[in-house]
Amino acid sequence: MRLEGKVALITGAASGIGRESALLFAAEGARVVVADLLADRAEETTQQIVAAGGEASCVIADVSRGADCEGMVRHAEERFGRLDVLFNNAGIMDARDGDAQETEEATWDRTMAINLKGVFFGCKYGIPALRRAGGGSVINTASFVALLGAATPQLAYTASKGGVLAMTRELAVLHARENIRVNALCPGPLRTELLMNFLDSEEKRQRRLVHVPMGRFGEASEMARSALFLASDDSSYTTGATFSVDGGITAAYVTPE
Ligand code: NAD
């Protein structure tokens, strides 16, 4: 088991990448703190872990609120005694996000508050806990859009993920001598609710797939397996990395027909 004895806190663990990671981390021996805004669905993830013989605890937290992030980290330490892995994964795509002209200030602010400030708050309160445990791993979910421009605009989202990537690199450098590794997971387009709601017609989906050399959307479970590598000691010499798991989208100039 690759996470035996470790405690992992995962935000956005009620759905998609976060839920798949929570289930996989627990199956690999971690005690998991399932953090999300959605109480019922977070509890569902927790119950799934327990039903499979794992250990998990649920905490309701809005990552855009500092007090909630402080509380979820405290919950991990009080419940399980330590924190070894912090997976800052919660994020949103606002349907009203568009180009510079049409994106409303409220959409910009909401997106930044959750996607970027949420990661900052996770690190603000989580890194001291990792230090108390003698080191650990931080994984921040960015996106391939932090690396490539898209003609389907979502300016606030893209800018927020660029910020996550830049922040990840700096934190990695700052904490490297403390045995704290900080890496960014950059998923490609996934067949999750989040993206399927945004690409809400077959035409939009096919338009996105044209750019993916593998010719398919990724699965949340494929992100979970990559996050497991970053969470575990298998990645003991990896920090500050932009870990792209994207079906080849960031490598492509022209894709096969
Ligand atoms: P999802 O919508 O299935 O899951 C996101 C979870 O975050 C939900 O459970 C939601 O309740 C939670 N959440 C939203 N706002 C929150 C808040 N303020 N506080 C706490 N929890 C909150 O989406 P997903 O596809 O699993 O996305 C997870 C991460 O992956 C996000 O950061 C997303 O931007 C990123 N990502 C997704 C894709 C994709 O194609 N789906 C691609 C690249 C990056």
Q: Your description of this structure?
A:
- This protein is an alpha/beta fold.
- The chain has a single domain, classed as NAD(P)-binding Rossmann-like Domain (Rossmann fold, 3-Layer(aba) Sandwich).
- 45% of the residues lie in helices and 15% in strands.
- Helix 4 runs parallel beside helix 5 (155-175).
- The termini are far apart.
- The chain binds nicotinamide-adenine-dinucleotide (NAD).
Report the principal-axis shape. Answer: globular
Task: Supply Rg.
Answer: 17 Å
Which CATH first-tier class would you pick?
Alpha Beta
Major sheet size, sense and barrel closure = 7 strands, parallel
- Please, what is the CATH homologous superfamily? NAD(P)-binding Rossmann-like Domain
User: In the CATH hierarchy, what is the architecture at level 2?
Assistant: 3-Layer(aba) Sandwich
Uncertain residue segments: none
Give a summary of the structure in a few sentences:
By secondary structure, the protein is α/β, with parallel strands linked by helices. The protein has eight helices and seven strands, in the order E-H-E-H-E-H-E-H-E-H-E-H-H-H-E.
Please specify the SSE layout and strand pairing:
Layout: E1 7-11, H1 16-27, E2 31-36, H2 39-51, E3 55-60, H3 66-80, E4 85-88, H4 105-132, E5 136-141, H5 155-175, E6 180-187, H6 193-198, H7 202-209, H8 220-231, E7 242-245
Parallel strand pairs: 1-2, 1-4, 2-3, 4-5, 5-6, 6-7
Helix pairs in contact: 1-2, 1-8, 3-4, 4-5
The structure holds nicotinamide-adenine-dinucleotide (NAD).
